[in-house]
Design brief:
It is a single chain. By secondary structure, this protein is α/β, with parallel strands linked by helices. Helix 2 packs across helix 3 (about 80-90), helix 10 crosses helix 11 (about 250-260) and helix 20 (about 460-470) runs antiparallel to helix 21.
């Protein structure tokens, strides 16, 4: 049971940019809470663990008895506080390392926590996600409790749901399939059985993708199918662990004998099922420390609820409560906006909001920009990002955050057009990339047989060794031109080179073997090194991360709050989601919105209601604290000056419907075509092929991937629409102002059956003409 299934992360800060930290708490100044130097020296005593903590963090660290509730605002150093608490308890002999279980919600957060604890001299503490801790226990006790081996765990349940739907003769499109899968997950984490789904969904205000009776039928068929195939899913891991601990008192006592002290991070995100598991781990003891912020509850659709955090003092009347409100991450200007957002909030979470106090020097005011349409907004963000890169801001310190993943494509195209490297958070994992796997294999071989490798003969340190090895895998001192697949592969290798440089700077005499060990541990924890590309991410996936510069895009009614957020509770969660986005920024924050979706569209959008009273020119709001609206409003693309006139409140937008069968469209690709994928197409196949040939030529000339010119979907939409003038072409999603200006004449000529001028031919003609003049 004590065998560690996850290799512990060595040096969680390795590969991250080093930020200077203040040495001690004095004169109102404090050690930076969210950054630490690489591989710092392990404190030589328990008291030394407390050095550099502010008074509130120190109170957390020294409150080791009884229940403790830490209410920690964004950027206030909560991870620092709880890891120093564990380390102080272990170093002081109050806590036994092997008896502490710290749980959080992501492998990355758990890996970071293990790394920090090791740096503080508290090795042996178990820091895991709820699921990995439960799975470890389930694997150990299954033969004793049930017999045999644990059923196979399926990574993704969506195919099983599809098979269950087919068995029930329920036809689901891709969007409905995803939504139905989410409903099943919600049901399981809220401990709702199929027979009770309809009533529970109605009580919770769930917006089911199909008739609740159909979802209940599908849920029951899914459970039967799993049983028939002998597999379990992610939620079953928790359900089965709960069942074993409830039914077998002897096993529950064995677990409780192992773990005497519990720490729960991000407690506002705990589901009813996770709370039940925590209660079974605890038994009748109260050696528990929870950390959370109700204002960052953004996962209620998965069953998460802040009620457990807000009710903690009711369940534990004698609990010690500590509030962390000193914000070390963001400038006063960013913090002011974050506080302003929450000052307008309502509901129970808002009643427990924390007023943050920035500990950083003043920075620039947030910039608010209005654009005519979404492509112009994306191009404006790309233009500003290119300016930041030219000014020396690292690409890895810039993020573009949006409400839905469907918004990503527009920004991918805009950044590609601008020649800006980017990485899409939530896409292929770093260590799963083929070039990374090959590079690590080469580094491992170099570490093992380096004495016989001629590439390493003239190398003198770790970075030069890594550069020499990776030069054989495609790494070059200068990045390749463009931003396509070749550039992405180079960026992956460059991230490994940068990691080697950071590790060498942090650890004197570091070797290739040390680096390979670091990479193996990071691979197990999925803790990727920093890739030098602008991050594109949804607001949900950005939780727990931070950047120097953040672009919050699409902050308009209908997107923020999202159209389907109708109840007061749903609206307030959307506000909290924007609050999370704002608090990701350390220094610079750009907030933008567009008046219409596509060029030439009706300008009937308005900025998000959440910005009322906070952005200049938007009027005062009725909040509980002073309003004031610092910042600057700009007009994007139109060239107008500040203080844009108010835009009329947008009317309810009619849903996009398939022009063939009339079904409501939710998938971004289908909305681009204005038809279902499986509905018949009236596309001109010959025109489509001519467009593809033209696109290949353009991509070759520009040294970029074909999709950077136009995606397949956009070409299909053009071939189905066959536009005959620029305005009609501009209304096709994926054809922005920049692409219209650059490619519009060619595309319209192809659609009209006219020849397209050959640029290479024109250049040759010009050369011949000049030669004749000579």
């Amino acid at each position: 049971m004590t065998a560690d299934a996850l290799v512990r992360l060595r040096g969680s800060a390795c590969g991250q940019p080093a930020h200077p930290s203040r040495p001690t708490w004095q004169h109102g100044r404090v050690t930076a809470a969210t950054h630490s130097p690489l591989f710092p020296r392990v404190p030589d005593s328990a008291d030394a663990v407390l050095e550099g903590l502010d008074p509130e963090q120190r109170e957390v660290a020294t409150s080791l008895h009884g229940p403790v509730c830490v209410l920690a605002g964004a950027g206030t150093g909560k991870t620092r506080a709880i890891t120093h608490r564990i380390a102080y308890g272990v170093r002081a002999g109050i806590l036994q390392a092997s008896s502490v279980l710290a749980v959080t919600f992501t492998n990355r957060a758990a890996g970071e926590m293990r790394g920090r604890l090791r740096q503080l001299g508290a090795q042996g503490v178990q820091a895991r996600t709820f699921h990995s801790a439960a799975l470890r226990q389930l694997q150990y006790f299954w033969p004793k409790a049930i017999g045999g081996s644990l059923p196979r765990l399926v990574d993704r349940k969506i195919q099983l749901v599809a098979d269950a739907a087919a068995a029930c003769r329920i036809r689901l499109d891709r969007g409905e399939l995803r939504d139905a899968t989410a409903e099943i997950e919600w049901s399981k984490v809220t401990q709702t059985v199929p027979a009770d789904y309809a009533l529970a969904a109605a009580k919770a205000g769930r917006d089911a993708p199909r008739d609740p009776a159909e979802i209940a039928q599908l849920y029951a068929a899914y459970e039967d199918l799993k049983r028939d195939r002998g597999v379990i899913d992610f939620e079953d891991v928790l359900l089965l662990t709960v069942a074993v601990l409830q039914d077998r008192q002897d096993i529950a006592e064995q677990v409780r004998a192992q773990y005497q002290h519990f720490v729960v991070d991000e407690y506002q995100d705990v589901s009813p099922l996770q709370q039940r598991l925590l209660e079974l781990w605890l038994g009748d003891r109260e050696s528990l420390c929870v950390v959370g912020d109700a204002s960052q509850t953004i996962y209620s659709f998965t069953g998460a609820t802040p009620d457990h955090l807000l009710d903690f003092r009711t369940r534990h009347p004698g609990a010690t409560v500590v509030k962390l409100v000193r914000d070390y991450r963001s400038t006063p200007q960013v913090v002011h906006l974050a506080n302003g957002l929450l000052s307008q909030a309502s509901g129970r979470a808002a009643d427990h909001r924390l007023e943050l106090i920035s500990q950083r020097a003043p920075g620039p005011e947030p910039v608010y920009t209005e654009y005519t349409d979404e492509p112009a907004e994306a191009e404006g963000a790309a233009r500003r990002i290119r300016e930041l890169l030219a000014a020396g801001v690292p690409a890895a310190e810039i993020a573009v955050l949006f409400r839905t993943n469907a918004q990503s494509e527009t920004y991918e195209q805009a950044l590609a057009d601008a020649g800006v490297p980017y990485q899409l958070r939530g896409a292929e994992r770093f260590f799963d990339r083929p070039e990374v796997r090959k590079a690590i294999a080469a580094l491992r071989a170099g570490a093992r047989f380096g004495g016989n490798d001629t590439l390493l003969e003239d190398t003198v340190d770790l970075p030069s060794q890594v550069r020499a090895v990776l030069s054989g895998e495609g790494w070059t001192p200068q990045p390749p031109a463009g931003s396509g697949a070749v550039r992405e592969r180079w960026e992956s290798l460059a991230a490994l080179v940068n990691l080697a440089q950071d590790c060498a700077a942090a650890r004197t005499g570091a070797t290739l073997a040390d680096l390979v060990g670091e990479l193996d541990e990071r691979m197990n924890a999925q803790h990727a090194p920093t890739v030098q590309g602008v991050t594109l991410a949804s607001l949900h996936s950005a939780k727990g991360l931070e950047w120097d510069v953040v672009f919050l895009v699409g902050v308009a009614e209908g997107m923020m709050p999202i159209t389907y957020a109708r109840t007061d509770e749903q609206i307030e969660e959307e506000r909290r989601l924007l609050y999370v986005g704002v608090t990701r920024a350390r220094e610079r924050l750009h907030v933008s919105w567009s008046l219409s979706r596509s060029p030439g569209g009706r300008p009937n959008r308005r900025p998000s209601r959440f910005l009322d009273g906070l952005r200049p020119g938007s009027g005062a709001h009725s909040g509980r604290s002073g309003s004031g609206a610092p910042g600057s409003v700009e007009r994007g693309f139109t060239g107008a000056t500040a203080s844009a006139p108010a835009v009329p409140r947008r009317t309810q937008r009619s849903p996009a419907r398939c022009r063939v069968c009339g079904r409501t469209l939710t998938d971004a690709g289908e909305m681009k075509l204005m038809r279902c994928d499986d509905c018949p197409s009236d596309m001109d196949e010959g025109l489509y092929e001519r467009l593809r040939e033209w696109r290949a030529t353009q991509a070759r000339r520009g040294g970029q991937p074909a999709f950077c010119v136009f995606t397949d979907r956009t070409l299909m939409a053009i071939a189905e629409t066959v536009p005959d003038e620029a305005g009609e072409l501009a209304r096709i999603p994926g054809v922005g102002v920049r692409k219209l200006n650059r490619y519009g004449a060619d595309v319209l000529a192809i659609c009209a059956g006219r020849p397209v001028a050959d640029e290479d031919e024109e250049e040759r003609d010009g050369t011949d003409a000049n030669s004749s003049k000579k």
